[in-house]
Amino acid sequence: QVQLVESGGGLVQPGGSLRLSCVASESILSRSPMAWYRQVPGKEREFVAALGLGSHSLYADSVKGRCTISRDNTEATVALQMNSLKPEDTAVYYCNAGGYFRTLNTYNPGTTWGQGTQVTVSS
After folding, report:
1. Contact status, residue 43 vs residue 116, Cβ threshold 8 Å
2. Percent share of the chain, pLDDT over 70
3. What separation in angstroms does the CA of 44 have from each of 3, 29, 91, 120?
């Protein structure tokens, strides 16, 4: 059973933009904070952004000011708008549900993950 499905990845030039989308069940989005993580081969999965049940959001320093996480409960989606993309943003991006804010500035992921969508930033 697929609970989270990401889309929107692809090849983009440095400085370009992408909008990643994650489709989830309405029950998941209504009850759970949502987050985006990314991973490159040989590296640990890295936190990118999280959005609480309210309006509280958190971003990794590496993407702060360039990315925006948002939720649409009606559409049952969570999105990550990525601007001014850099080659170091290249990774597989994963949607995550079921996590929580350990502190206002620290996020612990849940155990529900999407299959990932590849983002490649290259000239």
Report:
1. no
2. 98
3. 23, 25, 11, 18
